[in-house]
Structure formats: C-alpha cells, structure tokens
C-alpha cells in the first residue's frame, strides 16, 4: 500500500486544548477517549505561566460514536471546565495549515 493511499483513508484526528491549568484535565480527556474506544497515538502538553496547552493525535478507527458527536461532547465539557477544545480530522488540519 502506498503512502498516498494510506493518507486517503486516514482515521487520525488532532485534538488541542487550551485553558487555565487545573487538576484533572488529562484524566478527563483520556477517560472520555477510552470510553469511546479511541486510541491515543501521540501527545504533547505543557504548562506556560499557568496556562495548560495540549495537542494530541488519536486514532478513531474503532470509535463508538461519530466525530461530530465526540467534538460536541468534548467542546461542551471543556467549556464547562473553562477550556477551549478543538477537534479536527487530520486531512482538514493539514489542508488548513498548508503553506
């Protein structure tokens, strides 16, 4: 299988979070993803002067709900925690960030 055909069938999603640092952000997000059978492929997080930032790449191949429903849930729960959550399919993310 060529790299090009692999990209066309990508099931990878980019999730980013930004907000004031607080206890349990990672536990909340990873718990929600596990409940939905979503595998975390990679993540990077840091705290900059009291602000929590994280970006992760996840595999939604075995997800038990749609990407739209997942996005709504994470954004709603994140907002209630004072967090900005962004969820984008890898193909959309790459298209929007092309130079």
Summed up, what is this model?
With 99 residues, the chain is α+β, with helices and mostly antiparallel strands.
List keywords for this structure.
4 helices, 99 residues, 4 strands, disordered N terminus
Provide structural commentary:
Helix content is 38%, strand content 35%. With 99 residues, the chain is an alpha+beta fold. The protein is globular. Residues 1-7 have low confidence and may be disordered. Strands 2-3-1-4 form a four-stranded antiparallel sheet.
Q: How are the elements arranged and paired?
A:
Elements: H1 3-8, E1 12-20, H2 25-35, E2 39-48, E3 51-59, H3 67-80, E4 83-89, H4 90-96
The helix/strand series, from N terminus to C terminus, equals: HEHEEHEH
Number of strands: 4
Helix content: 25-40%
The largest sheet, given as strand count, sense and whether it forms a barrel, is: 4 strands, antiparallel
* Helix run count: 4
Could you report the average pLDDT, rounded to the nearest whole number?
88
Tell me, what's the shape?
globular
